[in-house]
Specification:
about 120 residues; alpha+beta; Alpha-D-Glucose-1,6-Bisphosphate, Chain A, domain 4; 5-stranded antiparallel beta sheet; 3 helices; about 30% helix
């Protein structure tokens, strides 16, 4: 087998920002709902590393992603910008596209949250 010199990176860096027209405390309450959080992130085990109150939560994560994950809630006008960060590496047995899957799962969840808190439904 020939060495192509291509190194497949296991590094995962995800950054996402979503505006939610709702009080930051309401957004934070969703993060405390373990049923909701487990549906959003079934591929990682979360351990709180820093609880920032209404400003969000930072977790240590293991599973398909190993590293840290954070949701930072920034008050903005009459609502909040919900920042989501993931910094880590693919865990053992994780699919190559785990970062893409994580991002899509998060976008569905945060937009569902946005619709609920803003009183919109499709």
């Amino acid at each position: 087998m020939r060495d192509t010199g291509v190194v497949r990176s296991r590094r995962i860096d995800i950054v996402d920002d979503t505006f939610v027209d709702a009080d930051p405390a309401l957004v934070r309450a969703e993060l405390d709902d373990t049923v909701w959080a487990d549906r959003v992130w079934p591929h990682v085990h979360r351990t709180v590393a820093r609880d920032r109150g209404t400003k969000g939560v930072r977790w240590r994560v293991t599973g398909q992603v190993v590293g840290e994950m954070e949701v930072w809630i920034e008050p903005w006008w009459d609502g909040a910008v919900v920042h989501h960060y993931v910094r880590g590496v693919r865990g053992p047995g994780a699919p190559r596209d785990v970062a893409r899957r994580h991002t899509l799962r998060w976008k569905r969840a945060v937009h569902g949250l946005k619709d609920r808190l803003e009183g919109k439904s499709l």
